[in-house]
Design brief:
The chain is of the alpha+beta class and 470 residues long. It has 2 domains: 181 residues, no CATH class; 262 residues, Neuraminidase, CATH 2.120.10.30. It contains 7 helices and 29 strands. Strands 6-29-28-27 form a 4-stranded antiparallel β-sheet, with no helix packed on it. The protein has a 4-stranded antiparallel β-sheet with strand order 7-8-9-10, with no helix packed on it. The protein has a 4-stranded antiparallel β-sheet with strand order 11-12-13-14, with no helix packed on it. The longest helix is centred in the middle third of the chain and has 21 residues. The N and C termini lie far apart (45 Å).
């Protein structure tokens, strides 16, 4: 019987038939260890003394690391969150923000992405355990088509399977996912595992595509994992940024490259999947828990940060003030200068009763705030005063329902747009389903200019522009 769960990296739904401990997400290409409650129990022992290859070493260190995750879960469930976060950071080497998110997911029984355990870490364990006579090396796409290339993949899968099996006795409902850039060092693309393309016309009735550009690379107009998108009010400058290396590129209104800048690494790599552009042309990017400000050439204009708030998403209101998501689901209203005016804590979970760890938001011209709760599969509407107004959406495949919702935006008419598996769904400002824009690939980021042109980033490393029909 097939089961489904969401990829912890991109949120896409994954179907699992119960045969393999590791599957590949067809949308973000992460390799995902299946949650324990969906896996068949392995028949071999998971004791460290039995996990040897060729007598040249064992995986005791790796297994011990996995087992200590259970200590984190126990600490979190007993209310010792600081101790749990500290231990998780010690185990994985992750930063405090990532650790707090992971611990929160663990205590809520949600899948998590294992940080600090990259493909290189696993490869080191593989090399140690294989001993002389067996060599595992990085495989390129051509080598994977050769029979000899499968040896390295087989050994790697064995190691990952062993790691997954250790999680069974400790009862964790956990998913470990390597970033695509790491896992591709070990297991290159398997035939038939490419992202399926949605065969849709460029004109689907509600919107028509104006242009599209991109592709994989490091040159002008090329991307690694483009997700964040922002556009100036006149549509003459478009910004697009990679998810995990801090590279921000600027283009003119026709998609021609203009300039770029790179946000440098601090404690961790500069992960972000969203940005906003003010009516004055200032670019706002939430990264490292702060909001960084840049001019149109990438020159720093300062930083907005407040103790106790880790900013993850934001939108700019028509008067220049800001509304942001902090700490997973807190809504924070700020002046244009960054002074906090009001806060609604636990905005989603206090309404739904279910935990929420990842939200996006958009603000319309009247000051209403639309919060996309990605774990709750719904949109929660709040007034300018912070009071909850309404909610709409649920998990499912029917029009108006969501499968792996990712981003939210609002046009000048107050219509709400949500990117998810079916495309970009469109709703009236009270949540009534209107239509869906069939984007050719999975849509990540969404942004509008004043002329109601919609700009979209996709999982195929492209930026696309759509004209919304009246």
């Amino acid at each position: 019987m097939a089961h489904a769960f969401n990829c912890p990296n991109c949120g896409a739904p994954l179907d699992y038939d119960g045969n393999d401990p590791i599957i590949r997400c067809p949308y973000c290409k992460s390799s995902v260890i299946v949650p324990e409650n969906l896996r068949a129990r392995p028949s071999f022992s998971s004791k460290p003394s039995n996990l040897t290859f060729g007598g040249a070493g064992d995986l005791g260190g790796l297994i011990n690391q996995a087992r200590r995750i259970n200590e984190v879960k126990n600490l979190a469930e007993s209310g010792q969150m600081d101790e749990a976060v500290a231990l998780y950071r010690e185990i994985t080497g992750s930063d405090e923000f990532s650790a707090r998110q992971a611990v929160g997911r663990l205590s809520a029984g949600q899948p998590v992405t294992l940080t600090g355990m990259s493909a290189d870490d696993v490869m080191a364990q593989v090399r140690m355990s294989t001993g002389p006579g067996i060599h595992v090396q990085t495989l390129d796409s051509r080598t994977t088509r050769q029979i000899g290339g499968w040896l390295g993949c087989f050994i790697t899968l064995m190691v990952v399977f062993i790691l997954a099996s250790v999680l069974i006795p400790v009862g964790l409902a956990m998913v470990g996912a390597f970033a695509a850039s790491d896992i591709d060092k070990i297991i290159n693309d398997i035939p038939g595992a490419e992202s399926p393309l949605v065969e849709s016309p460029l004109d689907d009735g509600f919107a028509s595509q104006e242009w599209s550009f991109g592709g994989e690379g490091t040159g002008p107009g090329k991307f690694a994992d483009v997700r964040a998108i922002g556009v100036a009010r006149d549509g003459e400058t478009v910004y697009a940024a990679n998810y995990d290396d801090g590279r921000v590129q600027a283009f003119d209104g026709q998609g021609n490259f203009q300039t770029q800048w790179v946000i440098p690494k601090e404690i961790t790599d500069p992960y972000f999947d969203t940005m906003a552009v003010g009516r004055d042309g200032v670019v706002y990017i939430p990264v490292f828990g702060k909001i960084l400000k840049f001019d149109d050439q990438g020159n720093s204009l300062g930083t907005i940060e407040h103790d106790g708030y880790r900013f993850e998403d934001l939108d700019i209101a028509l008067d220049g003030s800001m509304v942001a998501i902090a700490n997973g689901e807190d809504i924070v209203w700020m002046t244009a200068g960054g002074e906090i005016q009001q806060v609604v804590e636990d905005a989603v979970s206090s309404v739904s009763g279910d935990s929420e760890l990842s939200c996006k938001l958009a603000v319309d011209g009247t000051g209403k705030v639309y919060v996309l709760a990605r774990f709750n599969d719904g949109v929660f509407i709040f007034g300018p005063d912070g009071r909850f107004v309404n909610r709409f959406g649920s998990a499912g495949d029917q029009p108006g329902q969501f499968r792996a919702p990712y981003e939210i935006a609002v046009d000048s008419q107050g219509r709400i747009y949500v990117s998810e598996m079916q495309g970009v769904q469109v709703f009236s400002n009270d949540g009534r389903y209107l239509d869906v824009i069939k984007v050719q690939y999975f849509a990540y980021g969404l942004a509008f200019d004043d002329q109601d042109y919609l700009y979209v980033t996709t999982n195929q490393k492209t930026v696309e522009k759509f004209k919304i029909k009246e």
